[in-house]
């Protein structure tokens, strides 16, 4: 009996030691994961800051300057820096996949397509910032210029191309492109077109004061994330993120992919949860870029311009299509359309100035 009790206690002791070792390994993995994320975020901030400084100097040399609301002439089109921010990732991911696997993964292709579509929209916005006709304003003004003078303004270009980009983003997000056909696909494309058109135009309207568009983006992004959590779309992705191996994370922290943090995808994305986990990282990195951009805009170092407004609008289109149910996407369109109609007749800035709470929120953080 005494020997039996000693044997049981010995087994329990061994099991406790084994559990302790497992917990220690798990803790080390979590610490390594946290360290990788912190390093990635820090280098992302430094990389974005460097790019904004270089763009600001180059814009001053090229005289891409416009007066802000207090008549200071400062560089415009700062949102275009995002394209430079993601180039290292795109090069790293393509070259790494081709050299290591000899092929290109579908999920990474989908990710790069979305990045490419967003970049096209940002370039269109930047062209409007630098070369667009500033005498023509509002949708009505651009349509009148086309109808009366036959002038295809940069605003008309945006009016035609942005819904198309939104429809293509919706097409890329379709989970079963081959199976889905007919009215289902048509409705998806229309929904994506409306989301992109409405969101980008709203941010265009807000981009009249420093940080106003950024604050609007953060509010809508927060609502989108909360709805995504409530619907369970993000919950599955968190589990996927926890299942990532340390080797996958280590591959993410190579200098090339860290600099490009906006769309880091796992080395072997085979499940939907893994893909969405990578999407969470991309949104986190977009937040880092947004933070650095906000610091420059708040200090009146540059204007994010239409390039920044279109970047935020198309990103929110992508996030809404990826993480939220259909009812929320339609609700966004229904809520924001009246804002656009109101802004065609009245001034949003005057409306904000009339209400103390809105005015305080609008000026918060601006130097």
TrEMBL record:
The name this protein goes by in its record: Uncharacterized protein
Keyword terms of this UniProt record: Membrane, Transmembrane, Transmembrane helix
Keyword Membrane included in the entry's annotation: yes
Residue ranges of the TM segments: 31-52, 73-92, 112-131, 152-174, 186-206, 218-238, 275-296, 303-320, 326-343
Top-rank lineage group of the source organism: Bacteria
Coiled-coil annotated residue ranges, if any: none
